[in-house]
Structures are given as C-alpha cells and as structure tokens.
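Comment thread on ticket #2218

A.B. wrote:
> Attaching the input chain for the structure job we discussed in standup.
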Amino acid sequence: MPQASFVPLRWTRRSEKEMARRALEFRLEADRRRTVRQFSDRPVPRAIIEDCIRAAGTAPSGAHRQPWRFVAVSDPAVKRRIRVAAEAEETEFYERRAPADWLEALAPLGTDASKPFLETAPWLIVVFAESVGEADDGSPRKNYYVQESVGIATGILISAVHRAGLASLTHTPSPMKFLGSLLGRPARERPFLILVVGHPAEKALVPELTRKPLEDIATFIQSGWLVPPRGSNMMETSSNVASAAGSSSAAGPPSGARTREAIVRPDRARVLVEGLVTGFLGYAVIVLFFGALNVVAGRPFFHTAELLGSGLVATADAEGSGAAGAVLAFNGLHLLAFLVIGFVAAWLVMQSERNPSFFVLALFIGLGGLFLTLVRVRVGDDRRGPRPVVGDRGQPGRGSGHGSLSTQGAPAAMGRAA
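C.D. wrote:
> Ran it. Output below, let me know if you need it in another format.
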C-alpha cells in the first residue's frame, strides 16, 4: 500500500470583512449567470477554454481518482454530427418518450427538439464520467463517487466559464450514448452532459424566472438549535451599497442597479439593534399612554412620572425645582428598565425562531411585564392617596384638589420652613 505524502498548505488568511466582501461579490456574480440558448458564432480562443477546464480539474473527487474527461469540440463538421444525432434523440423524446408532466415542466423554458446552438456556439465541451479508470500499469482501477465528483467538477466548469465572461448551456440529450462513439471515447467513459460555451447572441432572450430565496434552500444549525433562515434575520441593502464594498472589482453590480440584497446579521448585532428599538418604543408608548390619561383627567402630562419619581428625588418641593428632577429620575429609570426588557425580548424572539416553544415563553414574559408595569403604577397611586402635584402651591382645582401638602411631603417642607 502506498504511503501518504503531505506538503504545507498554501492558504491566504483574510479578515472577516474581506471574506464577507469576497463572498458577496461572488454571490452577485453568480446571480447574473443565466442559461443561454441563443449563441453568437463569435470565436472564443482555445486558451480560455483550457483554463476553464483546468479550473474544473481542481474539483474534489472520491479517493482523488478524478474520474472525468472533458472533450472540447470546435470542429464545425463534428458539431454538425453532434447536432444531427442529438436532434434525432430529442425528437423521439418530445414526441414519444417524455411523459406529460415532464413536458409541462419544460414548457416555461420554451425548449423543443430543435438545437441550433450545437452548431452556432464556438465550443461544445462534452463531459464524460469514468466509472473505471486506468492505473499506471494500464490495468483497470475502480473509481469512487463518480457521479458526485463529476457533478462538482462540472459546476466549477460552469462557474469558470461565466467568470471568464462567456455564456453556457447544459444540454443532456436523452439518451446520449451516441457521444461516446461519435467522439471516439473508450467504453469505460459514459457521457455526462454537453456544455455549450460561447458569447450570447446580440439580442438573446432568456426565460423570466426567479430563484428560490435562502429560506427555501438552506437550513442553519447554530448552538444546537435548528435555525431556518427568516426574513427577520436579514438586513436588506441596495445593490449600490453592496457594490461599494467591492467597488474596485469588475464583479460589482451595474451602475444604478436597484437589486436588493439580503445579508444575515450576526446574532449579537441583531439583539442589540432590535433590543434598542423595542426598548425605546415600549418606553415611548407607556409615556404617551399615561400622559394622555393625565391630560384627560385634567392633570399635567407628567403627573404620573412626577408622582412616582418624587420617591427617588429627596429634593422635590412645592416650588417645582425638585419636580423636574423627579420627572427626569423616573423617566431615566423607566427607560433603562424598558431597554433591559427590550434586549431580553429580542433575545427570546431569536430563540423562539430557533425553537418554537420559546415563542410561548417570550409572549408570557412580554405580557407579564406589561401587566406588572400597570399594577405598579396603580399601586403607587393608591398608596400615596390624594396629594397635590409638587409645584401646584396648594391651589385647589389642580392636582389632587387639596390646598395643603400631604403628610408624605411634610417633613421636607417643615425643614425648609425652619
């Protein structure tokens, strides 16, 4: 058995910011790839095709057997024979072999038995899969994970062709055994597909299609929880913001494009942002709610805040110098409490997305917090009893309607009188 041999890994380490930029650039570039059926006969240099095939040859493979063979055809006569044979098989497929549901699925793509692109495009790359390879001594050698390996290599080939600025079409005549004999390939190689490569025609059209969103094609497992991606986990930015991250690259989106991109926010940033928004909104709603009640009852807008805050500020007096301090103290504490509640709520919502049972807990805590806030305000009013608003100077008809200070404020008032 041969001994394993290892060499140092050649690797470029990048910052998270750089990795995110490069990932987004590639995602935008890949999103512009479309399957084309209308090709120009404009020539493509062989060197470009060679480099694309070399890139495909870097694909991982079972036991590193590299069970693929790429046959690049530019000879017009050979392309003609491939087209004739392919159209014969396709005519049989469309008219006799294809079931109705398959034809219905193909209808939006506008395909039929006519395949003129097999002659028009400058290159046909026929991909073959080797179920059995050949050892150095010429003896047969079994290959492993052949379909998976060749599929990965073909995917890299398609990406390389697109990255080079060319269009492509995956064509799979059914059946396509004729390709082996027509191209003189050994019996151990089976046709996998034909990749048509070239420049798109000047006025090429493609079907109006949409690709599945992330939540329909991906599932994330984080910290032991099942996390389906959701729109609430995403932050949308316009394509010109995305292009700003990589404006130096030609892979950026076209100028003025308004395609919206989705970027998943890290969990910490999401909790911070949503917690701040939730806290401020909750604080504002409660302030406006009790302020409106006070105004309707004929009391000052901040009557409730002043009443509850006077217990926090010992300098509150009838002249009003302490009233502002009481209002500020209470509102500061009130805001802090709601921010804490907001952060907890945002965290619970995130957890509920990962585990639906958390939704019940988050809802219970949210409603419980609101209930306790209302009870606290009500109990505070009951305990203090009728008393004038600090700063009302004992005028009847305002605050509690009494002309004297309550006993709770008496000690401070007596001290100042002395």
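A.B. wrote:
> Thanks. Noting for the ticket: Confidence is low (pLDDT under 50) at residues 232-265, 315-321, 390-418.
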